[in-house]
Amino acid sequence: MYKHEVVSADPGLPFKIVIHQGQESAIVRHWHRALEIDYIIAGRAKYTIAGTELAAAPGDVIVINTNVVHAILTEPLRPARAVTLLLPYDWLRQQIPDYDQWRFAVPIGSQHPGPPSASLKALQAALLDIDQTENGVHNATIRRLNHLRDIYTVLSLLMTHFAESDNSANTLATAASLARMSSVITYLTEHANEPLTLPAVADQVHLSVGYLSRDFKKQIGVPLMTYLSQLRLQNAYDLLTNSDLPISTIADQTGFPNEKSFRQRFTKTYGQRPSAYRQNLRRSKIDR
């Protein structure tokens, strides 16, 4: 998910359920109109939500409101498991007619130490049940009914205990600004392996360099060239962990100016050189 993401529902359900299981995962900054709810079952993750960093641990429920820019990085080389709900905007408006007037905020353990409240326990239980249903109920009809039950429980708990009135909620920017940023990020995604510069990108998307630089950082939260570097790193990570390509080839195919630049960026983010990270990842898979 590199950009403004259009979320489609699962077949037979009006929303999307994603079960994450495995090792490292990095998702660069993006946004979508869907309401996203993440429940961390195992492992740890660092979220950046609207410019604020959050450290999420098992038991935490992370709510990402409509059109809020966010990024995710899970803990390196540690098994992770999480369930993500993506509730489409139009469906939410049907269930909650004044949805645009609300935002949801669920406290996480690092912010509010101590035992969870009864309402948070109920929310955790409903989300865990979604994970268990997805993996343990094989009858399609029963699985669908269980998911519908749990999703409505989640929505009821959010509205009853975790909703905050906010007339400015769900307005990352004007529709025009969102459209501009979507086109810019689409271009970056499609051409990340090329030697791009800020003036070259501005020329391609028909914006002045100054306007593109200011608006991109305002809406996405990081400078455009920083975002491009993060995107290249994510693409390189995928090749590093899912292929046997040499490090130099990975650097070349993902747009880094040279192997040294890639090694430095990777080591700064993941705490290990690319070659060592690949070896440790393969060793951890053998040991499991």
From TrEMBL:
Transmembrane segments: none annotated. PROSITE patterns: HTH_ARAC_FAMILY_2 (PS01124). Residues 182-280 form the HTH araC/xylS-type domain. SUPFAM superfamilies: Homeodomain-like, RmlC-like cupins. Keywords: DNA-binding, Transcription, Transcription regulation. It holds the Pfam family Cupin_2. GO terms for molecular function: DNA-binding transcription factor activity; sequence-specific DNA binding. InterPro entries: Cupin_2, Homeodomain-like_sf, HTH_AraC, RmlC-like_jellyroll, RmlC_Cupin_sf. It comes from the Bacteria. This is Transcriptional regulator, AraC XylS family. It comes from Schleiferilactobacillus harbinensis DSM 16991.
